[in-house]
Design brief:
This protein is of the alpha+beta class and 143 residues long. Helix content is 44%, strand content 11%. It has 2 helices and 3 strands; from the N terminus they run ααβββ. The protein has helices spanning 13-23, 38-89; strands at residues 100-104, 109-113, 119-124. The chain has a 3-stranded antiparallel sheet, with no helix packed on it. A hairpin with a 5-residue loop joins strand 2 and strand 3.
Length: 143
C-alpha cells in the first residue's frame, strides 16, 4: 500500500531529505502539483489583496492621466479648428471691441471704424441719428 507521506516524523528538513534519498530505489526529475500549506495560502491571499489595491490605484491614476491627455488633446483640436476657420475665411470674429461711428448724411448710412481706421460695419442710420449736426473731421494736424 502506498502511503501519502513518508519521513514526516523527522523535523529537520535536511535530515528528512537524506532519509528519503537513502530509502528510495532511484530519483527522477518530474513535474507535479504540490499542495500549498495554510501559511502559504494566507500569504498568497495577502499578496492578492495588495495586488488588487495596487491595480485599483493604477487604474485611478490612468483615468486621471487619460483625462488630462484627453483635455489637452481637446484644447489642441479646438485651437486647430479656430485656426482652420480663420484660414478658410481669411478673417476672424472680434467681440465687443470699441468702434467709432461716422455718419454719412448724404447716403443716410452709419459707418463703424475700428481703432486702426478699418471700416468694420455699416448700416442705415437710425431716425435719431439723421439730425444734421456740426461735425468736423480732424485730420490729426490741429493743435
Amino acid at each position: 500500500m502506498i502511503e501519502q507521506n513518508i519521513g514526516k516524523d523527522i523535523e529537520n528538513l535536511a535530515e528528512r531529505k537524506q532519509f528519503i534519498e537513502d530509502n528510495a530505489m532511484a530519483s527522477e526529475k518530474i513535474s507535479y502539483t504540490r499542495q500549498l500549506s495554510k501559511d502559504e495560502l494566507e500569504e498568497l491571499s495577502r499578496n492578492l489583496v495588495e495586488n488588487n489595491i495596487d491595480i485599483r490605484n493604477l487604474k485611478e491614476e490612468k483615468k486621471i492621466i487619460l483625462r488630462q491627455y484627453t483635455d489637452k488633446q481637446k484644447d489642441l483640436e479646438d485651437t486647430q479648428a479656430v485656426i482652420i476657420d480663420k484660414l478658410k475665411n481669411k478673417s476672424e470674429f472680434v467681440s465687443q471691441e470699441e468702434c467709432y461711428k461716422f455718419p454719412d448724411y448724404e447716403t443716410r448710412r452709419m459707418a463703424f471704424y475700428n481703432k486702426l481706421g478699418d471700416l468694420v460695419y455699416e448700416r442705415a442710420m437710425k431716425p435719431e441719428e439723421t439730425q444734421m449736426t456740426m461735425f468736423l473731421m480732424k485730420t490729426g494736424t490741429e493743435d
